[in-house]
């Protein structure tokens, strides 16, 4: 009887092994479950925002490069000083070119644009009313369309949201602190 008992156990073990192998073969040959990419809640009309932190030195390089590219003649210069935005240039008055310097106090608006409120100005050694000087400046220089000179309010509105950048991306100011040399911008890239 012992002779037949091991034969049954052998066939039982062989059957179990074959069954495990068949199950494994079936599982290996089943297609992989195709999972959908989780929805991140971003539609085609939306954009992603990238934070940019920089300093005065780099912003001054960028401003200088942009003015050279846009104006061609480079009749004026804009740079960030220790506590103000400075505009240097020449203005034609009575057929003569007279040196001009204006300083502005920047403030960040809720929409990410920049407002430059006129602080001080000098025209050679003469002092003219600021609205007149801004009006002359508006007529003398060709500024990009996203820069609006407002002589009556004695300010310059810098609509960074309207600045034409590649791929319809936009730039917004988040922090503009001249005294601490801290500048933060949001660069929005549309997902189209």
3D architecture notes:
- The structure is a single chain.
- By secondary structure, the chain is α+β, with helices and mostly antiparallel strands.
- It has helices at residues 2-29, 56-71, 130-140; strands at residues 47-54, 76-80, 85-93, 96-108, 114-123, 147-150, 155-158, 170-177, 182-190.
- The protein has one domain (47-190).
- The strands form 2 sheets. A 6-stranded antiparallel beta sheet has the order 2-3-4-5-7-6. Strands 1-9-8 form a 3-stranded antiparallel beta sheet.
Report the major sheet: 6 strands, antiparallel
General form: rod-shaped
Tell me the quaternary state. single chain
Question: What class do helices, strands and sheet pairing give?
Answer: alpha+beta
Count the domains: 1
Strand order of the largest sheet: 2-3-4-5-7-6
Distance between the termini: 80 Å
Helix/strand order: HEHEEEEHEEEE
Helix content: 25-40%
Average pLDDT: 78
Number of helices: 3
The number of distinct β-strands equals 9
Percent strand equals 35-45%
Give the radius of gyration. Answer: 34 Å
Low-confidence stretches: 34-44
Pick out its properties:
six-stranded antiparallel sheet, three-stranded antiparallel sheet, single chain, 29% helix, alpha+beta, 192 residues, 3 helices
Condensed summary:
It holds the Pfam family DUF2140. Keywords: Membrane, Transmembrane, Transmembrane helix. The chain is of the alpha+beta class and 192 residues long.
């Amino acid at each position: 009887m012992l002779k037949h008992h091991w034969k049954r156990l052998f066939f039982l073990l062989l059957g179990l092994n074959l069954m495990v192998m068949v199950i494994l073969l079936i599982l290996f040959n089943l297609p992989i479950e195709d999972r959908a990419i989780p929805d991140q809640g971003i539609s085609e009309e939306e954009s992603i925002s990238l934070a940019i932190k920089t300093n005065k030195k780099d912003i001054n390089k960028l401003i200088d490069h942009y003015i050279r590219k846009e104006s061609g003649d480079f009749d004026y210069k804009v740079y960030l000083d220790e506590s103000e935005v400075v505009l240097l240039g020449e203005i034609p008055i009575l057929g003569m070119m007279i040196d001009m310097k204006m300083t502005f106090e920047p403030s960040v608006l809720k929409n990410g644009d920049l407002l430059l409120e006129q602080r001080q100005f000098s025209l050679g050694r003469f002092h003219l009313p600021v609205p007149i000087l801004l009006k002359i400046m508006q007529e003398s220089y060709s500024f990009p369309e996203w820069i609006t000179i407002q002589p009556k309010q004695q300010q310059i509105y810098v609509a960074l949201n309207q600045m034409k950048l590649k791929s319809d991306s936009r730039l917004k100011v988040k922090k503009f602190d001249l005294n601490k040399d801290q500048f933060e911008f949001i660069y929005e890239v549309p997902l189209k």
